[in-house]
Amino acid sequence: MPRFAANLGYLFNERPLLERVDAAAAAGFKAIELQFPYDVPGSAMKAAIDRNKLTILGINTPPGREGEFGLAAVPGREKDWQVLFARALEYASEIGASAIHCLAGKVAPEQRPAADRVFAENLSRAADLAAARKITLLIEPINARDRPNYFLNHVEHAADVIAKVGKANIRMQFDFYHVQIVGGDLIHRLEKFLPVIGHLQCAAVPSRHEPDEGEINYPAVFEAVDRLGYRGWIGAEYRPRGRTEAGLGWARKYGLAPPL
User: Fold this and answer.
1) Active-site residue, selected from the candidate residues 14, 68, 191, 237
2) Measured between alpha carbons, how far is 42 from 220 in angstroms, rounded to an integer?
């Protein structure tokens, strides 16, 4: 049976971040993932996670300056990337997270050849630092409709980067929402790239609401996840239509028992 983690960048977002940890546990989640938790001291976050007996999965690297969305692939910003990654690594280590999503950043079309080299080199160095702390690095293809000029859009590109860098602790974050928008063929792509997938996420397309509407047949997708032998978590990374708890009915059949 699929196991679902609450993405606290999206769920329970009517509350301050630390209160979202409590709310996720109260709603029946056993694991959480964060996006940009850096305004909350790591010690306070760790205390909230431990108090609720939750598994903490991944965090994102900080996005950078206003309007940026990461720097891992941005030519000329290698030193800035190192600063951002060091911050993420320290925070992840303090709270006991198992993964860091390395945001590639926005790259102009003419810079993309250089960005391929920069991305691989930055990831290679970061992977060694993360491995020493038993942390996995994730790279995620994100659709260009939501993030224009984002460097990494296709699962095929992500798989090529992972193969090129050749580090065992670099994996793909495969978000069904983004993959559907970019190219679809979800179950085939899931099966093809499963050997390099480290984490899954879900949301409805095109609304990015609960995964119980729209063009993705999630019951079939989740059945395939089980059949293919994926044993990790699936991050519920969607924008609730209303109050988060009111929209969790989709997850009850998968063992989540939100309050009625």
Assistant:
1) 237
2) 38
Kindly state the tokens that stand for 232: 């990790």
Told to judge if 66 belongs to the known catalytic residues of this protein, a careful annotator would answer: no
Output the domain CATH number for residue 59.
3.20.20.150
Adjacency order of strands within the sheet including 136-139: 55-56, 31-33, 3-7, 233-236, 197-202, 170-175, 136-139, 99-101, 58-60
- The string of pLDDT tens digits covering residues 130-147 is 999 999 999 999 999 999
Distance CA 235, CA 149 (A): 24
Model confidence pTM above 0.85: yes
- Decide if 94 is inside a domain: yes
**First and final CA of the chain: distance in angstroms?**
22
140 classed as catalytic: yes
Number of domains in the chain: 1
**Which of 94, 140, 210, 213 is an active site residue?**
140
